[in-house]
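@channel sequence for tomorrow's demo:
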Amino acid sequence: MAKEKKRPIVVPKSIEEVSLFVSEIGKCQRKLEQIQTRINEDIEQIKTRAVQISLPLQETIDELFKSIYVFARAHRSMLTDGGKRKRVDLLTGSIFWQLNPPAVSLRNVKKVIALCKRHRLKRFIRVKEELDKEAMLKEPEMASRIKGVRIGQKEQFVVKPAEVVEIVRDTKKLKKVLPKK
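structure tokens (generated this afternoon):
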């Protein structure tokens, strides 16, 4: 891939020129929003058409699948040699039965935890330890004394054209565009 040439940065010479630059950013953003809106509308039309085309196919698949299942269930013993095998290979594919891995489902977790504690089944209870970043932000001086903890803040420069979404960039990254001294 060819390296992109950097265009020289044109620095405004007055506050009036800054205002013109902000206005130009607003115009460009509005054009981008129009393009994005058109793209989203086109995508929605394509999705709608795809659903219309695929719905009858999905219905056919569902009907065929149910039919195969009804047959397979009625003839399972014969198809599996009395349960000796789970897979039936056909010329066009295969059908088979399988068990999903065991899974635990819980309702009212607090009650289940209380019951496990009451019946001394603490081995079923996991205690998760994690750092409280919100508490650290409330005491930044104390928290930053801890090795491995850094409380940071970045300055941002914002250009917000009227009636358009603002653009925010990290000033550290913006320094790369400054002319070299």
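heads up for whoever presents: The beta strands are 87-90, 93-96, 156-159, 167-170.
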